[in-house]
């Protein structure tokens, strides 16, 4: 079958699609009269919700820090400050994603638009990295000088905090795109809430190969 | 001469180019009901992007970009769901009174071949079958003309193999 025959074959289905003219008119009329939301715009709502909850949370922690500034435990103040700074950074990522969503123009070339959409989804990985970085503060915020006077208690707390710090730093530096096929990575990011992010990372890979004129598998 | 409202421009545009939307939807979506949802989503996106249209590009180039971008995103979102549903339900049914059963079979084979392609190759194949020039395909997809030629050549080779295998069997 040559090129002409192939294209003619494809065009035969155009005739079958003619029946859709009434449907097109109906949709077009409805869309231009009603306020409709595209799938892309609907991605904004969960982000806005998370930002609002996040602002309330950091506001609450800030309030606690200010309240405890004069008389509170130093362990609590330092832990809460680290927590609130990391939460504010995560909020910044969500804000950045909102900006990205509003910048995506589906009228631009396919690879450009798809790369932006995939990068947007893959950037959720940064939120996970920041969340893991908070690990050690959950082992320190409740400590006080009295608890650390006993050698055994001091040793156990130091050991736990050191372990959590090591795990947090290791995860922060190793949770990255290049490690997506590792078993531990797949274990952490198992579940349907992470699936779109992992698929986006794979798609970014495909896009890169596609641009390079390599046959992707 | 009365000035057309954006709503009229939009309605004329989609009516005139509805073939683009339906054919792209069909290539990315085996289920007929889902195809209609997909066309609707494409139309919402066209309506919302109308003010951003860049007149440096042909209207068809702009429409193909939107249709393909919406279809690819939809396809990626529903990939798992579609795999579960199987692949045959959306294919064009053989007409009972068809006087060209061989053509119908070839069309089915072509549809099946397109269905099996990855999302970006699918876009290339649809544009090639729609008789778009390599230069326009390059503008729509966002790669070089030579890259378009190489990739389409590879896909066509695979398609030819498929058709010749079919003839043998």
Question: Beta fraction of the residues of chain B?
Answer: under 5%
The greatest inter-chain interface is formed by:
A-B, 50 and 64 residues
Quaternary organisation: heterodimer
User: For the residues shown, what is the average pLDDT of chain A?
Assistant: 86
Q: Decide which structural class fits the backbone of chain A.
A: mainly alpha
Largest sheet of chain A: none
Number of helices of chain B: 9
Model regions low in confidence, pLDDT < 50 over at least 5 residues of chain A:
none
Rounded to an integer, what's the Rg of chain A over CA atoms? 26 Å
Helix percent of chain A reads: over 70%
Shape of chain A: elongated
Q: How many extended strands of chain B?
A: 0
What does this protein structure show overall?
The complex is a heterodimer of chains A (about 220) and B (about 170). Chain A contains ten helices and no strands. Chain A is elongated and about 85 Å long. The two termini of chain A are about 25 Å apart. In chain A, helix 5 runs antiparallel to helix 7 and helix 7 (about 125-135) runs antiparallel to helix 8 (about 150-175). Helix content of chain A is about 70%, strand content about 0%. Chain B is mostly helical. Helices cover about 75% and strands about 0% of the residues of chain B. Chain B contains nine helices and no strands. Chain B is globular, with a radius of gyration of 17 Å. The termini of chain B are far apart. In chain B, about 35% of the residues are buried. Classes of the chains: A mainly alpha (about 220), B mainly alpha (about 170). At the A-B interface, helix 1, helix 2, helix 3, helix 6 and helix 10 of A face helix 1, helix 2, helix 3, helix 4 and helix 6 of B.
